[in-house]
Each structure stands twice: as structure tokens, then as C-alpha cells.
Amino acid sequence: MIPIKLLHFxxxxxxxxxxxxFSSFNAKFHENPLGLPRxxxxxxxxxxxxGLPQKRSIPGxxxxxxxxxxxxxxxxxxxxxxxxxxxPVALQGRKVGILDTDIFGPSIxxxxxxxxxxxxxxxxxxxxxxxxxxxxxxFLVGEEAPVVWRGLMVMKALQQLLHExxxxxxxxxxxxxxxxxxxxxxxxxxxxxxxGAVIVSTPQDIALIDAVxxxxxxxxxxxxxxxxxxxxxxxxxxxxNHETSIFGCDGARRTAEKHGIEHLGDIPLHQSICAQADLxxxxxxxxxxxxxxxxxxxxxxxxxxxxxx
Length: 309
Ligand SMILES: Nc1ncnc2c1ncn2[C@@H]1O[C@H](COP(=O)(O)OP(=O)(O)OP(=O)(O)O)[C@@H](O)[C@H]1O
Ligand SMILES: [Mg+2]
Prior knowledge:
This protein is an alpha/beta fold.
């Protein structure tokens, strides 16, 4: 929705209330973030001359993928963090790491049942559980301590997490992204050579509206979209086996079709997935032969195939 202040502005200037004026990809300068019409708009200067960072790879890391959705609470961390992608790769003796890029609400320590400070050897040394290397802001601050930082501090911390972790030799690094399409997403997509992005969404329209924003952001910055995972697709009653589509049933699949990307699979809403997240014990570890582990493995295989792992 267009802010009321801006509507007043256009009412007074008589300019058209075209939506495209507010496209987040239009004229974006820090002194005019809403792209308001102005006579002294700064000239467009090429990226290099503006001193913007060039994309680079993370030392020692083979492939890097981002698990994202502009929507919060749809299961990004649960999916990224519980080895669902990792298992088939790990089975082949390859090394996998996960980087929690959520500075304000890190989830990886809990999901991996990890605590303690990563040692410092000029660079941060990741912690390990289930054979997976992980790094998170949550290792550096207490579980109950809020990070009360302004943007510049957050970006500095993110850059250190991206460039100053000693991963050793990893075949795959998974980045668990926070919700939104802001600073963190921009920094990652501008600074890191990503092999692809996986979008997670529930089937509900209200989640998909934001997921589509995420899709368009990755398209805009030329990061390959590996596909959408539809999380919480269906709920099967453990007592009577009745199936309920709590958040709708097919939204993410239709969105995938519409945007020309692959629908990677459906993950049901299930109490055990939630409980295992709190226990810090991934489904593929606690119930390796269960139906959910099988679903995650299939999705993981698809992703690994797509990035050539
Ligand atoms: N398929 C599922 N079945 C049951 N619970 C789930 C499922 N997927 C995720 N959850 C639960 O939903 C909640 C949100 O999941 P999660 O924290 O992974 O989302 P997120 O997208 O990473 O959130 P944020 O945007 O805050 O980073 C958690 O309590 C998690 O355990
Ligand atoms: Mg998360």
C-alpha cells in the first residue's frame, strides 16, 4: 500500500499515482529511497565506479546455495537446518556446512543442538554436530540476549560471517536467510557467488505474495532459482488419518509454474517435525527410514542434481 504521506504528496503535485513509481527496483539512491520525483536526481554511475563490491566465492567452499523466502516463519531454517538437503550429500562422504545469516533471530544453534563460542584463530572456527559445520550469530551472543544494532553494525557482522569463517574444505555451504528482501539479502547476493536459491513457502496466498518478492529479487540479481519447496502442505491427523489443507493445498506449485521454476516437493505439517526442531535432532537422523526423511531426501537429491553435486 502506498503510504498516506505519499498520497498527499501526489495529490498536491498532481503527478500520476502510478504504482511503478514505487517499484523497489526503480531509481534507488540512499538519499531518495522511495524514488520520489526530483529535479536534481543523481546520475546513474556504473557499478564499478560506485565502489560496489564484486561477487566472490567463499574460500574453501565448493557450492553455495541460499534457502530463502521473503516471508517469515514458513520453515526456512527448519528446512535448511535439519540436514534435509545435506543428508544425501553427506552420505557420499562430502562435507557440508550451514551458515545462519539471520543476525537478529538465529535458529541454527537450537536446530543443531549446539552451544558454546566458536574458537577464534584470526578467523571464526565453526561448531559441528551430526558431521555438519555450522556458524551462527547465535554462537556469539547468549540465547536470550537480543542483538540491538543499527544497520551498519549488522552489515559488518554479516560480512564477517560471510568472509571470515574458516570452513576448511566444504563441498556445499547452505545459507539460511532471514525473511525479507533487505540489507542481508542484498549483501549476500551482491557479494557472494551463489550457485542457486531455494524458495520456501506455505501454500497460503499471504505467504506466496512475499515468496514471489523473493523470487523476483533473485531473478533481478541473476541468481539461479533452483525451485520452490511447499512447506506445511497438508496436515494428516495422527488419530484418524484425515487430511486437512490448513494453509491451502496447491499455491506454491501454481506459483512455481507461473514463474517458470521447479516445484521441488511438498513437506507436510507434522508435530514430529516441530518437536524434532526443538530437540535439535533432525528428522533424517532421528527417523532415517520414516516418511518425512524420505521426502526431504528426495528434495535434497533434486537440489544436489541441479547444482551438480
Ligand atoms: N513442516 C512442518 N511441520 C511442523 N512444524 C514446522 C514445519 N516447518 C516448520 N515448522 C515449525 O514452524 C516454525 C517456523 O519455522 P522456521 O523457524 O524454520 O521458519 P523460518 O521461515 O526460518 O522463520 P524466520 O522467518 O523467523 O527465520 C517453527 O516452530 C518450526 O518448528
Ligand atoms: Mg529462520
